[in-house]
Write a sequence for this structure.
């Protein structure tokens, strides 16, 4: 008997390119033993609602879309007492989670075959405040607005280049944010230009953390804090440290923690998995260990 699979599809992701070999992907799932039901999203929040309302009736749930779509699906699954394993057919612009998991990008047929042949692995989900979640990163500060302020038409036309161009426009707008951070066994207070809590080797398609540092199901998240460098030369030194993957800048702090709380002197905008996450003066983040199983 075939296994029931719920496939949640964001038709806008990847400029609609999922259609190119969609029939082959469905055949691969069928030949692999899945009876697939399709559910299409029409707007923000739909994937969360569909996953929360329907996923319990299936043995596997999967999604076609970008990191934001996967984030919504996981948020919906977090409402279930025993969520089914999750497959991911990445069709977004940045695809950080796909990079971390080593999944084929923008090729639904190849990704469908990975669902068939892959193995479910423990995957930590991030908790954001009392009721929200993120799949791989929650962040504030420099360049974190790029993803959701980049016009949708630019994303469709230019792909990842659209993010690069938008990021260049943000260079002159970087501001320091006085921050107090409490994490497992420690505390930091000072002026930051960036902060995040993540569970990924790839952040924004630019920052690559060492694989030996990141374990996706160990109950630990990576806390990244970037101090205000105070000058363009010092800022360039941070960028060079990150791009060369040395991470040896004195203004760069990377450590592991199960939780972190942030306090600011004014409301600060956050992003969750590249989408707008709201403004806060106080926010607590946590690692939800082994909350779901990802197939890869």
């Amino acid at each position: 008997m075939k296994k029931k699979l719920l496939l949640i599809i964001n038709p806008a992701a990847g400029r609609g390119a999922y259609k190119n070999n969609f029939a082959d992907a469905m055949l691969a799932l069928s030949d692999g033993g899945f009876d697939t039901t399709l559910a299409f999203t029409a707007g923000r929040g739909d994937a969360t609602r569909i996953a929360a309302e329907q996923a319990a009736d299936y043995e596997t749930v999967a999604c076609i879309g970008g990191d934001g779509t996967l984030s919504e699906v996981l948020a919906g699954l977090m409402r279930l007492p025993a969520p089914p394993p999750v497959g991911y057919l990445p069709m977004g612009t940045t695809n950080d989670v796909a990079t971390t998991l080593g999944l084929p990008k923008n090729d639904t047929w190849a990704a469908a075959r990975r669902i068939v042949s892959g193995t479910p692995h423990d995957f930590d989900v991030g908790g954001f405040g009392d009721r929200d979640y993120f799949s791989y990163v929650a962040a504030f500060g420099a360049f974190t607005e790029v993803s959701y302020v980049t016009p949708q038409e630019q994303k469709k036309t230019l792909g990842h280049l659209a993010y690069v161009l938008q990021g260049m426009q943000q260079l002159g707008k970087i501001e320091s944010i006085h921050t107090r951070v409490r994490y497992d066994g420690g505390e930091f207070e000072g002026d930051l230009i960036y902060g995040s809590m993540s569970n990924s080797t790839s952040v924004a398609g630019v920052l690559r953390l060492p694989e030996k540092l990141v374990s996706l199901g160990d109950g630990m998240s990576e806390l990244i804090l970037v101090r205000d460098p105070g000058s363009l030369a010092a800022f360039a030194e941070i960028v060079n440290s990150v791009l060369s993957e040395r991470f040896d800048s004195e203004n760069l702090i990377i450590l592991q923690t199960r939780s972190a709380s942030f306090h600011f002197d004014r409301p600060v905008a956050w992003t969750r998995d590249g989408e707008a996450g709201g403004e806060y003066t106080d926010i607590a983040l946590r690692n939800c260990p082994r909350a779901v199983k990802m197939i890869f």
Q: What stands out?
A: Residues 146-152, 154-169 have pLDDT under 50 and may be disordered. The domain at 3-118 is CATH 3.40.50.10330 (Rossmann fold). The chain has two domains: 3-118, 132-290. The first strand starts at residue 3 and ends at 9.
